[in-house]
Write a structure and sequence with these properties.
Elements lengths: L19 E8 L13 E8 L13 E5 L19 H10 L10 E5 L12 E2 L3 E2 H16 L9 E6 L1 H12 L6 E5 L5 H4 L3 H13 L3 H8 L10 H14 L20 H8 L3 H7 L1 H5 L3 E7 L6 H14 L5 E6 L10 H12 L3
Parallel strand pairs: 3-4, 3-7, 7-8, 8-9, 9-10
Antiparallel strand pairs: 1-2, 2-4, 5-6
Helix pairs in contact: 1-12, 9-11
Length: about 350
């Protein structure tokens, strides 16, 4: 991406939007009564492409965008110096600022934040029914309020990191809703992306909290968040356990012994059952039915998700999936928002009416 110039998307006061962004609120019936007490009324942002208002009889494919861990929808307005925001990138893409635009689509920015930082877009008794929320609350609401092509052949899902994970899993679990997905460094190959943090968490619990997560939570909630060195690791590992290995009563089971870090096999197996690498063979028929699969990651991804993406790709090929775009690029896990429009274009071209 070139340096910003007046008139670029990175100069928002000079840009005239070609499409528009609407902000709505959705009643998440699936989230009512969630154990964390998080809101069930959620913000939802909907990008409408150029021409939407001028062609009232036209219907459009829809692409759902899922955020990474610790993401909530209003963060899409956060701006890095000299970079456009993602909504501005969307508008530039469909306006054809730098290249011929893809087929126009409605793009939906979904909020699935929890007070543990994220939901992995799964149903869990510890966090809430966020997979159900996406599939049974959000998708029908969008189809009822906007001129979508309300068939699975014209609906896709994409995301980065935990959002990329959610995109992969959503397409596998609900091929009746989604005909394509894109994952930017989505969580995969759990023994590489999660295991390295387990001993870090054990040492942090031992040295600062007498081995107790309860002590950690009391301390964490008494001060500004993420102001101590291991806050993020302890917070995230617990959040992942809440998504992957919660008991029906909401009790969160850790996949390791807090005193030693030794794996608890029966709990770790519950995590592995949600690993996309392990899920692909179980959902091979659903994946073969998709119109589009897009995977990418930075070669220096901080969580080894480049290796996870390669492992997912190999399982997809073994399962007989043929429509796969795959790329490893120079970069790490963060600062890759410029990749997002590439996936949107790929999905838009393949979900458009044929």
């Amino acid at each position: 991406m070139s340096a910003a110039r007046p008139g670029d998307a990175a100069w928002p006061w000079a840009r005239t939007w070609s499409g528009r962004l609407e902000e709505a609120r959705v009643e998440g019936n699936a989230l009512r009564g969630n154990r964390l007490g998080d809101p069930f009324r959620r913000p939802l942002w909907v990008y409408l492409p150029p021409g939407y208002d001028e062609e009232p009889g036209r219907r459009y494919p829809s692409i759902y965008v899922l955020q990474g861990y610790l993401g909530q929808v209003d963060m899409w307005r956060n701006r890095a110096a000299l970079w456009p925001t993602f909504p501005e990138m969307l508008d530039a893409l469909f306006a054809g600022d730098e290249a011929p635009p893809p087929p126009p689509c409605i793009v939906i920015l979904v909020d699935a934040w929890t007070s543990l930082g994220g939901s992995q877009f799964l149903d869990s008794p510890a966090t809430g029914r966020y997979h159900t929320y996406l599939c049974q609350d959000v998708v029908p609401w969008v189809d009822a309020h906007y001129r979508t092509l309300a068939a699975r052949e014209h609906r896709g899902v994409t995301g980065h990191s935990s959002g990329g994970y959610g995109a992969m899993v959503s397409a596998m679990l609900r091929p009746d809703l989604f005909a394509g997905f894109a994952s930017h460094a989505g969580d995969a190959l759990f023994e590489l992306c999660y295991l390295p943090e387990f001993p870090m968490a054990v040492r942090a619990l031992r040295d600062a909290y007498e081995g107790s997560y309860d002590r950690f939570w009391r301390d964490f909630r008494s001060r500004l968040p993420f102001t101590r060195p291991h806050d993020h690791t302890l917070f995230e590992i617990y959040a992942m356990a809440a998504c992957y290995s919660a008991e029906p009563d909401g009790t969160v089971l850790l996949p390791f012994e807090p005193a030693t870090g030794r794996l608890v096999p029966e709990v770790w197996e519950r995590w592995l059952a949600w690993d996309p690498v392990r899920m692909v063979p179980r959902h091979a028929a659903a994946l073969r039915s998709l119109r589009a699969v897009y995977l990418d990651a930075g070669r220096a991804d901080d969580y080894y998700l480049d290796l996870g993406a390669e492992a997912v790709r190999r399982e997809l090929v073994a399962a007989g999936v043929t429509e796969i775009a795959f790329e490893l690029f120079e970069g790490g896990h963060g600062h890759i928002a410029y990749r997002y429009p590439l996936a949107i274009r790929y999905l838009a071209e393949r979900l458009a009416p044929r």
